[in-house]
């Protein structure tokens, strides 16, 4: 299994794709419209080529023998069809050229790949900086240029090593992504021993998750918004583990999992709530399932009537 955001770890597929591109680059015409016709020969050459690891071709491993190709057959001088002899010779020449190109491509790609590899090892408990998978996944990146956003976040502790080149990282609870990263996506964290204040991040934390998957810490305020069909009560939510800059307005239907916080907000703001707002809050509470069938149908007689705790969506004392 490949680690997150590191397709190079699927080496077999990447190597095949690279060699296929190399082959097509040598034989395709200038218009690049005949590359589909070259795929069959390219696949045949690849499957008949011996691997440096197994010293056997894919054909030999699967069938136990090398395929009988047209160019491997000796065409006698007195063949009756000149076209058949020409086809056999041309096929043999093309296959030899293709095999030579594939071998050179393998050596060249291995050389360049080894030059860019970092042989780094970490231990469980080490603090590392994790490369941001994609800044566009973050809700806090809306309206911002991803090229100017931070490339690494952390420090985050390593839980354990997975295989030889991957590590499992202890990610924040609101990051809903795979926790295993390739070593190339990690960087050793170096704390500033002289100025401890520089070790504290000054930017808002990234939110690689949906709002409903986060944990609400408190309800700070409420407002009424209108659409073409109806009005909605919205609540300003402070999310756990997020700065105040990440507070968001949420409709009551998105806060079903945080009913105690909504009730606590109603209780603390009941004296300052107008009857019209109480009616809307009552409907919100019924949406959350906090009112029984009887109390949910109690009307407000006048604007001067003091709402009861049941009408306001509050528990009775």
Automatic annotation (TrEMBL):
<feature type="domain" description="Integrase catalytic">
    <location>
        <begin position="1"/>
        <end position="75"/>
    </location>
</feature>
<dbReference type="InterPro" id="IPR016197">
    <property type="entry name" value="Chromo-like_dom_sf"/>
</dbReference>
<dbReference type="InterPro" id="IPR050951">
    <property type="entry name" value="Retrovirus_Pol_polyprotein"/>
</dbReference>
<dbReference type="Pfam" id="PF24626">
    <property type="entry name" value="SH3_Tf2-1"/>
</dbReference>
<dbReference type="GO" id="GO:0003676">
    <property type="term" value="F:nucleic acid binding"/>
</dbReference>
<dbReference type="InterPro" id="IPR023780">
    <property type="entry name" value="Chromo_domain"/>
</dbReference>
<protein>
    <submittedName>
        <fullName>Uncharacterized protein</fullName>
    </submittedName>
</protein>
<dbReference type="Pfam" id="PF00385">
    <property type="entry name" value="Chromo"/>
</dbReference>
<dbReference type="InterPro" id="IPR056924">
    <property type="entry name" value="SH3_Tf2-1"/>
</dbReference>
<dbReference type="InterPro" id="IPR036397">
    <property type="entry name" value="RNaseH_sf"/>
</dbReference>
<dbReference type="InterPro" id="IPR000953">
    <property type="entry name" value="Chromo/chromo_shadow_dom"/>
</dbReference>
<feature type="domain" description="Chromo">
    <location>
        <begin position="214"/>
        <end position="277"/>
    </location>
</feature>
<feature type="region of interest" description="Disordered">
    <location>
        <begin position="289"/>
        <end position="317"/>
    </location>
</feature>
<dbReference type="InterPro" id="IPR001584">
    <property type="entry name" value="Integrase_cat-core"/>
</dbReference>
<feature type="compositionally biased region" description="Polar residues">
    <location>
        <begin position="295"/>
        <end position="317"/>
    </location>
</feature>
<dbReference type="GO" id="GO:0015074">
    <property type="term" value="P:DNA integration"/>
</dbReference>
<dbReference type="InterPro" id="IPR012337">
    <property type="entry name" value="RNaseH-like_sf"/>
</dbReference>
